[in-house]
What does this fold into?
Amino acid sequence: MEIGWMHYLRQRQVLVFFVLLSMSGVGAELEPYSVAEEMEIGSFVANLGKDLGLGLTELSTRGARIISQGNKEYLQLKVQTGDLLINEKLDREELCGSTDPCLLYFQLLMEKPLEVFQAELRVEDINDHSPVFTEREMILKIPENSPLGIAFPLSNALDLDVGSNNVQNYKISPNSHFRVLTRKLSDGRMYPELVLEEELDREEEPEIVLTLTALDGGSPPRYGTAQVRIEVVDSNDNAPEFGQPIYKVHIPENSPVGSLVVTVSASDSDSGIYGKISYTLFQPSEDISKTLEVNPVTGEIRLKKQVDFETVLSYEVDIKATDGGGLSGKCTLLLQVVDVNDNPPEVTMSALTSPIPENSPEIVVAVFSVSDPDSGDNGKTISSIQGDLPFLLKPSAKNFYTLVTERPLDREERAQYNITITVTDLGTPRLKTQHNLTVMVSDVNDNAPAFSQSSYTLRVRENNSPALHIGSVRATDRDAGANAQVTYSLLLPPHDPHLPLASLVSINADNGQLFALRALDYEALQAFEFGVRAADRGSPALSSQALVRVLVVDANDNAPFVLYPLQNGSAPCTELVPRAAEAGYLVTKVVAVDGDSGQNAWLSYQLLKATEPGLFGVWAHNGEVRTARLLSERDAVKHRLLVLVKDNGEPPLSASVTLHVLLVDGFSQPYLPLPDVAAAEARADPLTVYLVIALASVSSLFLVSVLVFVAVRLCRRSRAASGGGCSVPEGPFAGHLVDVSGTGTLSHSYQYEVCLRGGSGAGEFKFLKPIIPNLQLQSTGREVEENSPFRNSFGM
It folds into this structure.
């Protein structure tokens, strides 16, 4: 019984009380339940569903479960029916020892929403143990002259049962000298005393053997026996006496083994062997026998093992002093264990939620309780977490705490939190316990993909190969998992919805790489724009857009094209130059264009070959052909010039044109070959001579007819308007007099003033300086248009 009582005190120190925790932190208790020990596994205890007023399925849907003290699962809950059943056979003596009532505390935890109900189960005792004497044979030495009525304490019997099932009575076998009395100790245990009712006579009966029987109060009662052997000795009329009946001692827990507790002392007035005293522990419990030892000679009581305040608060034991004659006396030792702060706080985690979704308001992350088996300030605790975390620790009743989020969490800011719960007691020195939690934050699709730049400019050289990788766009998403998987797609530009984007470029949906689907031509398409959309795979999906501008880089793939003089295989154009022309006289201008751009279209002109080198020159930048010196009579009449037109590309491309120049004395002189030349040609080829003469005649007649027609029309208009004698004809000249302007170096046009003198036998042209540019080259192709007609002035 002493063992059970101490075990009960220890349980009361370490028991953790769980309370019902709703989101408001208010707890509730269930009614107490009771069950007899040693019931079979699966035995019915109670129906928690009915007690809580819940439906059959509500316990299951709310995730109800039983939480017992420590790791023992004595009970199980059938969530389908709400029945509370025995999960293990309950041995009351093993669970509670001598503690009565024997209470087991458990909690009903429901997670959705979080609620905790506290309950207790009372384990009722059954009479399943018989009384047992620690000493199967007790020997008493009683002087023969002992007075009647003297009592001799005997060792008690131990019964692991409690209450009425414990030892209730003692009986002695029938005899003529002794009877037995049942006495009650301060802790409720029963012990026997042997009382002398008839004087002893050693000579008549030196030894008496009796049987002592201990009976419990069960139905039917159980019993145990021991033998009492009484030796009748000679007279010893003084029993030992202690100096004080009660010794009260305080000793700190965890004192080392062998520490002196107290020294008891008794005296005996007898002499000799009857005055020699020996000390023993009187009827010690098993726990006291393991904890204390007494020196039989000196009376020193020392520790056999360390004492623990959390296990046993105090010890009470009687000390017996016996003299050589068998007389004895006793005193009581009350040993109080003083608490020392030797137990750190304990953290019991009841519920933990991980991961928790980001962007959510206050969430219960963990539910835990704190206990400290020490007493006083040594058992008071303070709980805390790191101050730089977005979590709060909210205390509840009975050392119950909840860990909640202080604000919505952002996974992109931090995806994992390592939380250290620090629990410190208020003892000296202070002891602390740390419990580490790892809380993960789950991702929510709250971030759209973001491009590395809002617009991209890509350059592609024309004439590229199909499926050429021309560049990449990249967007990143701060989310995780499917929420961060980005896919790319093309968007038509809003300002050009008819752009054939699908035939120009394609994009890799996984990595954003852009490819040109066909060869691009700078002359047809110099630049185009489109949008790229990056979307994640979250639900709902988020997206963003970026603008991509593709610039087609020109390649030198177009050779210069000569617009004037035309090289179309027809009769060559001949330029007429008067022999009276001065140096620098403009003969003609070579007009060329290049379909490329930039330096690929910068044209330069060069005279490759001439009939008479040094007579003519070509300006490199504008293609003007001018005389390099004064003409003389010795210069040939016909000249053939080969002009090279070259662009500035790499490698450069070029074109050539052939010019025919005829030196004449004036425009009135018909274009006829010289007599000696004609004779030579006639001799060489008469047919050719005839053809040349015929063509020259027809051309001259046609030219004269046109000039006469124009002059007549102009004169009529002039007379009708003002009656003057000089008219200015309007209308275009022949094609070889038309000048062209365009891009690049072709920037000059010329108009020539011509006067016709009246009264002369043949018309005479007078070459004057250029006056007004009036022709343009259109930029949309390689077509040449004649602009407004030349305005010419004729003087009579």
Observations:
- The longest strand covers residues 114-124.
- Residues 686-721 form the longest helix (36 residues).
- The mean pLDDT is 79.
